[in-house]
Amino acid sequence: MTDVQLGMPQLPAPDYPAEVRARLEADAREVIARYPDSRSALLPLLHLVQSEEGHVTRTGVRFCAEMLGLTTAEVTAVATFYTMYRRGPSGDYQVGVCTNTLCAVMGGDAIFEALQRHLGVGNGETTEDGKITLEHIECNAACDYAPVVMVNWEFFDNQTVESATRMVDDLRAGRTVEPTRGAPLCTFKETARILAGFPDPRPGAVEAGGSAGPASLVGLRLAKGEAAPGRVVSPRSADYPSDEEAPAHPSSHDAPQRTSASDPHHPSGPVAEEGE
Fold this sequence. Notes:
Helices cover 35% and strands 7% of the residues. It is an alpha+beta fold.
């Protein structure tokens, strides 16, 4: 007969150390004061506790609940709905490879598979040195730069297996890595604090742009009544418009991959028939 493990209810989560609690309470009150209804501050507060430990812990859930007058079940329901909130220890750099349709056929699948082999981790797993957490994500909203990789939500456009591998190696070695566009990189904890609504301390980060590419702007230009733009071509093409600067990392993946099943061990679709 197979033993049935009923388990015991978990004890209440431990609290933060007194000095950490005091510091987080001061930050939390600043965030809560921005909203007419305190519970509206839950999303930034989850980023705040994530900035403390690198993921949303049971202690962080308890803290948010106490600050907002919610139950831990209500906080957990939100924290587990949004994928930006990590549920377990994660690395200094979240490396997300887009494996949605366009990025997949332009090479995203090949990049993701290569990084899994190179780093020795699966989807959502972290390297032994605690530097990199690898995951595949659904659309980085940068299709005209496909295939795209994001590191702590900063863009690395037109990637190849080679450029993405070099990038994660540089991150692990502590070498400077600059996004294709947008603000300079910082650690995941620092990113979480910025997302909680606190000032970005990086020089020039606020002014750094992440504008859309030529293909994305065609419709906008036409809607504004501007003259029809010239033919929009791939940044990999030799006849890329002379007035546009081609991306620094052109991709060599022009041929569709045979499959878009990036990670068969972590399927994103239904795993059972409806009603089962």
